[in-house]
Structures are given as structure tokens and as C-alpha cells.
Write the C-alpha cells for this entry.
Amino acid sequence: MTGVKVEDLRTFPVKGARGQRPSCLRIDPVVGVLGDRRFAIKRKVDQPDVWASKVHFRVCMNTPQMAAQTPVFADGSGTANPGHGLDQRWLQSLAMALGETELATLDTKGAFNVVDTDPRKYGPTVSFLNLASVRALKAETGWEIEPERFRMNVWYDDGQPFSELAWADSFPGTRELAVGDLRLRIQDACERCLAVEANPNTGQRDLAILDALEAMLRKRGYGGSPHRGSFHVMGFLATPLAAATIARGQEIRLL
């Protein structure tokens, strides 16, 4: 893996909602990507303000309309800033869109991210998407597939579809990679759910991506993800080992 660089970046301040395209990612070894998955919309008002799995929140997996929602923050901007919560008028309009009278939110205040893999047990993560894999899935299906569907932080393209699955070969993983000067330990292949079938422009489930992924990966001889043996896989997760900044154009290399 040589000459591979960071192509694009995303953060998702509200779990399940549309993401942002920041100038860089600020990485913390305790939290992960600062500002990513800071907020979540609770499914039950009495859900505690602690990390919980995604089934406890309104996310694309169980509420596909979330995929097309663009958050607004208390300072009136569309950009999450430290110290600013979610705009109450936006939350009211979201509640109406979801057929609710009001919504309860989790605000981690930056203490942790509401990522899918328990960060208390396995550590925080930065997610990586190989655009070559997305391109191969497009070619296999003939569908127009937006990379944003996969809700990943770092986008890169090594020209080798699904090469990343050979790196994520154990759980929790032990292999390391570097982005610029930042070292990360590969934790696992990223197992996907129904969230990827929700169109980020319409909020409707419109493509059977999970079935397509499974058929394609079985045909390629993949044996399933290390954690659960899943064939619904795209990208990988890695735990940062230091504080750093990830920017477009930085080199990505296996160590």
C-alpha cells in the first residue's frame, strides 16, 4: 500500500443524521474523532445519558428518515461547535417529521462518541472507507451508490476493492496503520446494518445493499468479519493511539 492518501473527510455530529465535511478531523485517543456522534436521538425518554448500542436511538437502521436530516445547532449554524447544543426549533421540526410530539436527546458533551462498538470495552474508533470498494459495488450492481451511505470518517482510494478486509483479519485487531504521523490499531471490519439502505437525499430505503454486499463478498471468497462472521461489511474501524489531526492529502500506510 503505497501512494495512498486521504481523499475526503466526514463527521456525523448527530448519530443517524447527515454528516459534515470538515477541513480536518481532530483525533483524541480517549474519544476518537472529536465532535463525531456527540448527539443521539433517544427512542425512550428515560434512556440514561451513557453510551448504549444503536437500537436505543433513532438512527437510519430503525428510522430511515434520519438519513436525510441535516442538523442545525443552537448558534444557528449547520456546523457543530464546542459548547453549542442542538437548535430546539430543528428538534421540533424533526419530531414532526418523525411523527412525535417531542424528542429526547443524548448530548455526550464530548466525553465520548456514540459509536456502534462499545468504546468503554474496545476503545474509541475512527472509521475508514475505501472508495475502490464502493466503486466495485456500483459496478457489480449497476446502482448509483453514494459513499455517504456508509457514514465513515476517512475516505481513501487504493484502487484495490476490499483490500482493507485483509487488514482487519482479527478482533480485536493487532495490525497498525498510520495516517500522517498518527498511528492507529485496526480494530475490526465495519459490519453494516440497514442504515446503508437509507438514501441520504430522500430518507427512503431504496437499495438492497446488504444482500448485494453479501453476494459480492461470498463470490470473492471472503470468510466473514472477524467479530461476528458477517458478510455485510464495508470499510474498517481503527483505534487512535495518540492525539493528532487528520487532513486531506495525508498519506495512509500499513505498518
